Amino acid sequence: MAISYEQGVAFVEGFAAAIAENKDYLTQLDSEIGDADHGINMQRGMQAVLPKLGSLAGTDLSQLFKTTAMTLISTVGGASGPLYGTLFLQLGTATAGRSEISPQEWSQALDAAVQAVRARGRAELEDKTMIDALQPAADALRTAVQDGVPFGDALTASERAAEQGMQATIPLVARKGRASYLGGRSAGHQDPGATSSWLLVRAARQAFAGDA
To answer: What is the distance between the alpha carbons of residues 158 and 172, in angstroms, rounded to a whole number?
Structure first.
């Protein structure tokens, strides 16, 4: 199977809907260890993306993802704008000139995007950041696709790994970002960036597997 441009749009729209639905939850999580604005900022950014999607009709996945990236960078405050902007920008680079991609190409694009976010944020696993959800998701997807697992099942494995990574941030002591200022007091709280990253991976599964 292939991931079409239309499914790419559904992915971006689905992520926007998930952010809108979970805005207050994300902000609550951020109020415990951050600036209490993650949900608000991400909502503003993704809502700014939506009106631009119609003008992109007939373009390719690269333009879709790059437009999403530049909109997030210009509208989302704090660290989230540059980091999610970097993620979508790399997805755009990896899909240059393509109106559809294979499961393997999506896995490769996600791998590249996660590595770009790691480099931009200088974050590693167990730093209590979005990487704790994104890296396991990318790893699980790559392994499943390489093993010939049906794509829908591979996407489900990726989503499950992201969710487990998100939950695994709860006992961690933050080593990056505003939460790191709290030291040991950051333990016991779920990372908001990992949570929004899980929502992103879930949106990909729903859009690409055709399963809401």
So the answer is: 22
Contacts of 204 (CB under 8 A, 6+ apart): 11, 106, 110, 155, 158, 159
CATH for 182: 1.25.40.340
- Range(s) of the domain holding residue 197: 3-208
Cβ neighbours of 109 (radius 10 Å): 22
Has this prediction a pTM greater than 0.85?
A: yes
DSSP letter (8 states) at residue 122: T
At 91-101, the pLDDT tens digits run 999 999 999 99
In this structure, the number of other CB atoms found within 10 A of the CB of residue 85 comes to: 23
pLDDT digits (tens, 9 = 90+) for 49-89: 999 998 887 789 999 999 999 999 999 977 889 999 999 99
